[in-house]
Design brief:
Sig_transdc_resp-reg_receiver, 44% helix, alpha/beta, Bact_response_regulator, Rossmann fold, Response regulator, 5 strands, 5 helices, 124 residues
């Protein structure tokens, strides 16, 4: 797993972003960028090259699913790995995310091991 990649972490809760950053740092990733919602994330994507997106599902302004659809519609990021983090493990949500092109998803609460496993699957 290439730990030099640039990862964008999107969540409206600062605590959740911090938890994800700590897990990613434990896994050896250092190049981490944060956004507090989908609209902020789009600005980040326009201003710098991102190699992996980890986004919460439920956020104000723009949901993770709406962001995923915009990312998949862009020529620059349509192939960028996208990990969805959600508190909702409802089958319909998972199906919607898969249809929209999500690379993988993880359900809250999650462990560092769960994040590591998902990243190994999508970054091989």
């Amino acid at each position: 797993m290439d730990t030099s990649i640039k990862i964008l972490i999107i969540d409206d809760f600062a605590t959740m972003r911090r938890i994800l950053k700590n897990i990613l740092k434990q896994l050896g990733f250092k190049n981490l960028v944060e956004a507090d919602d989908g609209t902020t994330a789009l600005s980040v994507l326009e201003s710098q090259k991102i190699d992996l997106i980890i986004s919460d599902w439920n956020m104000p302004k723009m949901t993770g699913l709406e962001l995923l659809k915009k990312v998949r519609a862009s020529s620059e990021y349509k192939k960028t790995p996208f990990l969805m983090v959600t508190a909702e493990a409802q089958k319909q949500n998972v199906i919607e995310a898969v249809q929209a092109g999500v690379s993988n998803y993880v359900v809250k609460p999650f462990t560092a091991e769960a994040i590591s496993d998902k990243l190994k699957k999508i970054l091989k």
